[in-house]
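Q: I have two molecules that I believe assemble together. Could you output structure tokens for the complex as a whole instead of separate predictions?
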Amino acid sequence: MLLAAFTWTEFAQQLAAGIREGAIYAGLALAIVIIYRSTRVINFAQGEMATFTTFIAWSLMNQGLSFWAAFPIVLAIAFTGGVAIERVLIRPVENAPVLTIVIITLGLALLLNGLMSMIWGGGNRQFHGPFSTRTIDVGGVPVSVQDIGIVVVSILLVVLLGFFFRFTKVGLGMRAAAVNRDSSRLAGVRVGWMLALGWGIAAVLGAVAGMMIAPVVFLDPNMMQTILLYAFAAAVLGGLDSPVGAVVGGILLGVTITLLGRYVGFIGSTLKLPAALLLILVLLLLRPGGLFGRVTVRRV
Amino acid sequence: MPLLEVENVSMRFGGIVALDAVSFDAAAGEIVGLIGPNGAGKTTAFNVITRLYTPDEGDVRFDGESLFGTSPSGVIRRGIARTFQNVELFSGMSVIDNVRVGGHLRQGDQSADDVLFYMNLHSVRDRPVSDLPYGTQKRVELARALASGPQFLLLDEPAGGLSHEEVEQLGVFIRRMRDDFELTILLVEHHMGLVMGIADRVHVLDFGKRIAEGTPAEVQANTSVIEAYLGVPT
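A: Yes, here they are, computed for all two components at once.
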């Protein structure tokens, strides 16, 4: 059968699940966009960085800490780690061709993956999240508390970031540094630190996404690999340059593939990724800049 | 003592000598013109003063102290701001945000709005700069430079791409700005009418060398300047 049986309740449930999926993609896509905007580099290590910090959270919780006690510690570690990666690995090759830097991020992904296997070993781990998996009734539709929690945390994070970029001087400096480095320097913005800060913030976004999704899937060193692909797709869909686009792209993608997987029989769970990528391809043919991206025209 | 002293600065790019032992200066409160044919090294000199380039030889002193101990992002803290030949704004950001970046080292946001009023840009305060006409973008760039509260302003071809009336207004405006903010201004400009009209003193560069210096009238009468611009009669 091509189309599965349809009820509104189930549709609403699938929609909720799709939004939850999308919130995770959005978080990681946002991390990719923040680094891309300021350095024109796609960070292929974003997924592994997120998983690594999630493992740290797991270790802390194994030491007896509660999730919310471990949470700020992990974010601090992620932030420091992100800044350190920029300073130690990316800064020395700042003026190298983009491809060189991309290769470095790929190497970093492999390195982190190996380190995780070495420190924590392979195999799946149960990660106890902060939200219960029981369902509550939202307007006649049963939705899990966990799904609601993930979406709320993601929204909070996006609002916080939006506030930071809009209303703080550091946020303003980061935006300026992403657009025009020389002008930023001459306005007194310390561009190098702004870029490092971008990596720190991206690492924090990844850590949150990792800690949110780990209870849904299982924690293992490869946990984020497929999710990272979706996040890339979401970022491109949104326009790569646009933080708003990354969030909208993530949610849109999450909802689309969840609904496709459920209702279009032959797609199921195996063809979800190709189906999503096909959709994006079509969209990019129509709008080459992505949903929110701008096609740049430069005066020469 | 001059506020800015450029002393024997040489700058090479590969085999090209962009600046060849160039010296010039600007005294506090002066409007100094820096002119010369295309490729004479004017913009290179700006980039050296604002620390985007480090020259091979020579020194640049500001207020008696070398600028070479200062990073590019530290230049503005010394009171030096500039505009660019091809407008280097933060595209995609609003007018006010562009000006805010310029003034972000100062306390409070009031200064950014004050500058917008002064520059008559308040009506486009929240528009993205990329949507504005070229002449307006040039004014936004000037506003961004002013917002930092500079002592010394470098203007790289402020009249480029402006209409005849706009250039006339600009001349009046630059002088007024100098008086209102007690600025010292170094001006690179191809528009001779503008330079000769407002500069107190003019330095002429040609092929990376300074070939003349003096008041606008003196420079206009100088034979090597005429040759540099028009060629040597054969």
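A: One point stands out. Residues 76 and 204 of chain A are 8 Å apart (CA to CA).
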